[in-house]
Amino acid sequence: MNRLLIDTDPGEDDALAIMMAAAHPHTKIEAIIVAAGNVGLHHTTNNAAVILDRLGLDIPIYAGCKNALVQNTQDASHAHGLDGLGNTGYRSERTIESAHGSAEIVRRVNAEPGELTLVTLGPLSNIAVALHLDPDLPFKIKRTVAMAGAVTGHGNTNVCTEFNVFADPEAAHFVFEAWGAAGKMIEVADWELATRHGFTKQDRAGWVALDTPLSDFFAAISAHSNRFIEEFRGRTVNFFADPVAMAVALEPEIIKRRAQHHLGIELNGGLSRGQTIVDWLDASGRQANADIIQEIDHERLLELALMAQR
């Protein structure tokens, strides 16, 4: 059984990723840990609860960091809607656990070392704080899969940066450096991977045609982002990055091509703050800390996304 801790900032693409994990026969979601990111923490926490309500799952939700470690940036409400779920206004009355999300990550990982896979779908703020609480955290996690970065500088935020890293570069720096120091690697499903595995208008029409409660829910919360990409990005293919990362977490065999190198985070550049810098030639001699996923089985990704909405 694949047992997941999901750290997330929902986001309709986070919603689809969580739905994929919930539908997968060999996966159990142990807890949802929430950070600010796509929108503020009060929205992302509510959105996690809304998603679990729709799935009918009794999974604990823990709120984590409401700010970046050092310098806050703008959210992504322009793409996801002011509430993060496409301005649908969904609300949940579900109770949120009292423990801080970072502390809960530490508690659960220490209770069962080597048993839990960590999947990060948002800024890495919660993981960085957890590392400060327990610097040995990387040794105790079975796998770490992160939707993070733009490994050759083709970003979606500040020209060369990807949103999750740009939103909290210091947190990303702490996390990648800690995993490298431990001799561990983070499986990186970056923005550029997502652009190679986009979901077409035809794919999305197939989801709508399912006409199930879950497909109707996802159609409602993703309508805003679909309009956004057409009107402001000039394309009809939607790059739902978080489901791509989740597919990697759910089925490692989906990976068709990968490369292992050191990945660093630019913290100071005026034009490049938050850029992920990969030592593609291994020229620095630094320990590889990133297992960069470069291609996955696209047809299987589509099957997983469809299965999530049945």
Textual characterization of the structure:
- The longest helix is centred in the C-terminal third of the chain and has 20 residues, at 213-232.
- The chain has one domain (2-307): Inosine-uridine Nucleoside N-ribohydrolase, Chain A (Alpha-Beta Complex), CATH 3.90.245.10.
- β2 (27-34), α2 and β3 (61-63) form a beta-alpha-beta unit.
- The chain has helices at 12-23, 41-55, 77-80, 101-111, 125-133, 137-140, 163-167, 169-181, 191-196, 201-210, 213-232, 241-250, 298-307, and strands at 2-8, 27-34, 61-63, 117-120, 143-146, 186-188, 255-261, 263-265, 276-278, 290-296.
- Helix content is 42%, strand content 16%.
- The chain is of the alpha/beta class.
Keyword list:
310 residues; Inosine-uridine Nucleoside N-ribohydrolase, Chain A; eight-stranded mixed sheet; two-stranded antiparallel sheet; 13 helices; 42% helix; globular
